[in-house]
Write a structure and sequence with these properties.
By secondary structure, the protein is mainly alpha-helical. The chain has five helices and no strands. Helix 1 packs antiparallel against helix 3 and helix 4 packs antiparallel against helix 5. The longest helix is centred in the first third of the chain and has 51 residues. About 15% of the residues have low confidence.
Length: about 200
């Protein structure tokens, strides 16, 4: 046998090992980055949902709507200005959302865009430029959009945690409204289905 053949096989094997090792390291880094992004986004979305519930924005909007309809003076609108930590986290991952896979990039972008629009609407509502009819319509629009956005956000938190290999955590995500009875179809209160791992 030609003495160059074992050397050639050794060189090829070394090249394959180096390439395979590099590929494995890169796949590991990609997976860690994807998990980190999923958890950061889940945390930011969950925190925003909790903040809106804790500040009872929906209740304040309902009271404001009733006061406008009754002709009573309205002191101020519930203001929720720009949430800098939420913006920082979502902007940091904006270019990498495609790595989440499936429809998650679409849903994250939709949640972020809707929540930003709601924040702008709340700021507009606190101003004096619009008349009562416009403010009433804006309150109804914010309420409808928030219900949809909140549902999207709650599902996102669960799905992003799943990307990271984590299940639901009790107490994570916005609690049900204080005056509402638990609903068996509500993702926040429904028991988790058994896992088939």
């Amino acid at each position: 046998m030609n003495p160059a053949v074992p050397a050639l096989f050794g060189s090829v094997a070394t090249a394959i090992a180096i390439f395979g090792g590099g590929l494995a390291v890169e796949l590991f880094r990609h997976r860690r980055a994807r998990i980190g992004m999923a958890l950061a986004l889940a945390g930011a979305i969950d925190a925003l949902l909790h903040l809106v519930e804790a500040r009872d924005i929906s209740g304040k909007l309902a009271t404001m709507h009733d006061d406008f309809e009754a002709g009573r003076p309205v002191r101020s609108a519930p203001v929720m200005g720009p949430n800098q930590p939420f913006q920082t986290i979502t902007e940091a991952y904006a270019g990498d959302l495609g790595n989440l896979g499936g429809d998650l990039p679409f849903r994250v972008a939709r949640f972020v865009t809707h929540s930003y629009g709601i924040q702008l609407d709340l700021l507009r509502l606190s101003g004096d430029a619009d008349d009562v009819k416009i403010k009433l319509a804006l309150i109804r629009e914010i309420g409808t959009l928030w219900q949809e956005t909140s549902a999207v956000g709650q599902a996102l938190v669960a799905d992003l945690r799943s990307v990271a290999g984590l299940g639901a955590v009790a107490g994570l995500s916005a609690p049900p409204p204080r005056d509402a009875a638990p609903d068996s179809h509500d993702r926040r209160t429904a028991p988790e289905p058994p896992r088939s791992d």
